[in-house]
Amino acid sequence: MALESEVDALRAVPLFRAIDPKELKLLVFLSEEQVFHDGERLCVQGDEGDCAYVLLEGEALIVVEFDGVDRVVRTLGPNQVFGEIAIIRGVPRTASVIAKGDVRALRIQSEVFLKLLREFPDMGLEVMRELAKRLEVTTQELAQAQAQSAA
Asked: Which of 4, 28, 65, 138 has the most beta carbons within 10 angstroms of its beta carbon?
């Protein structure tokens, strides 16, 4: 995909909307486009989190292994980011991500991602908003699961 197309794709991601197009070009240039096929793992729960990904095309499943059972907790689509938690906290991956069909993604190394957070406070604010939104959804899902198991 052409550089301009990838920059346009990043501008559709809430996390990157506040970043100047010149800086997005640099981000794309410093990142690596990768293609995954159905069933391939983009990352594995427990592995070192050394990068974040932006889905450019296709869908991917977020899968969490708990008590030896893999559970799909969410489906991601184009213009969604994942992997930033492992980078920000410096912890292993909290989930595996598996391609559902063909997926094209932009792989952003941790140093590049963290540099962007330092240089663009608005991006840091968007990361916090996204993580807060995920926490809210997870809390609601857990409450629903508890209610169903109690019934």
From this structure: 28
